[in-house]
Amino acid sequence: MHVGTRALFRVMNRYVGNLAPMPGVFPDYPTPVVRNVGTEREMVMMRWACRPAGGYPDTNIHNTTSPHWRGWLKPESRCLVPPNSFAEYAPEPNPATGKKDAVWFALNDDRPLFAFAGI
Questions:
Q1: Could you count the other beta carbons within 10 Å of the beta carbon of residue 41?
Q2: Strand partners, 42
Q3: Which residues of the chain are modeled with pLDDT < 70?
């Protein structure tokens, strides 16, 4: 993760190592996140997903009213996801391919760093 990212989010502990440049955050792939642990902030890897799975913890929940996720809505489970762009799958499959297309989001074409909330 870029040194400026660590400074911007005041990260004290960094457990992600030196990451290669990433073009964005992809569904079902790990991404760095910033979270509070005690009185310090740390940067760790989490999985960009909206369903429970092994490996990296999930950081994307679409249905906060689901009983499954209620226990994770507390402040201690919150994090920041610092991408320059991210993707979500389209809600319906593309008729031409039968697969869901990735829909990309960024602040603008320059893709500056920003952050959004994760759980």
A1: 18
A2: 13, 35
A3: 1-8, 11-19, 49-62
